[in-house]
Design a protein that fits this description.
6 helices, 3% strand, transmembrane, single chain, 74% helix, 189 residues, mainly alpha
Length: 189
């Protein structure tokens, strides 16, 4: 269990860092998907996934010992998979305005989603117990594991940022906000 929490923590950090770069810098700032007619639907999909991640983070990772929220979190996972499938389907048409999806961004998408779903899979291994009779029970006593506290602290610290990113995806639809958002100049990438 200790190793699984460490792995889950690392995957959560990797996912969050790459999702921040991809979702905020590339999608909102550099390519401004929300401003292009062809990519407005893709932006809506990204907005939904941003809020789904916040829901998954809270219902599964932060409220890990709440079995009622666990089932809501599992529903969020299935919704996320469904929405991600739609995202992958529309992406080719959505990015025509920029000559298609750059290969390196495609690789980032593979890594982001790989880290995301690998972390969720490891989490499910932590949470679900299968008995010899094939019955399922849910694990709840995680405080006994040293690496659990670090995992929970990191999840708690990522939650506000994930909510803000979801809100940012909504706010860029507002012309007044987007006017000032466009004025941000980064001198890096």
């Amino acid at each position: 269990m200790e190793t699984a929490f460490v792995i889950c923590t690392i995957l959560l950090l990797l996912y969050s860092a790459l999702a921040l770069f991809d979702g905020v810098y590339l999608h909102l700032y550099k390519y401004r998907l929300h401003e292009n007619k062809e990519s407005k639907f893709e932006h809506l999909i990204h907005t939904i996934r941003a809020f789904l991640f916040s829901g998954i983070l809270y219902t599964l990772f932060i409220s890990i010992e709440n079995n009622k929220l666990f089932f809501i979190g599992v529903l969020f996972i299935f919704l996320d998979i469904f929405i991600m499938t739609i995202d992958a389907y529309v992406e080719k048409d959505s990015r025509k305005f920029m000559g298609g999806l750059p290969r390196w961004e495609y690789i980032i998408h593979l890594l982001v989603n790989g880290f995301h779903f690998a972390g969720l899979a490891v989490f499910l291994v932590l949470k679900i117990n299968l008995t010899k009779e094939g019955m399922m029970s849910l694990q709840n006593n995680f405080q006994e594991f040293e690496s659990y506290s670090l995992f929970k602290i990191i999840a708690l610290n990522i939650l506000p940022g994930s909510i803000l990113i979801g809100l940012l995806h909504v706010l860029v639809y507002i012309p007044g906000f987007n006017f000032y958002f466009r004025k941000i100049q980064l001198k890096c990438c």
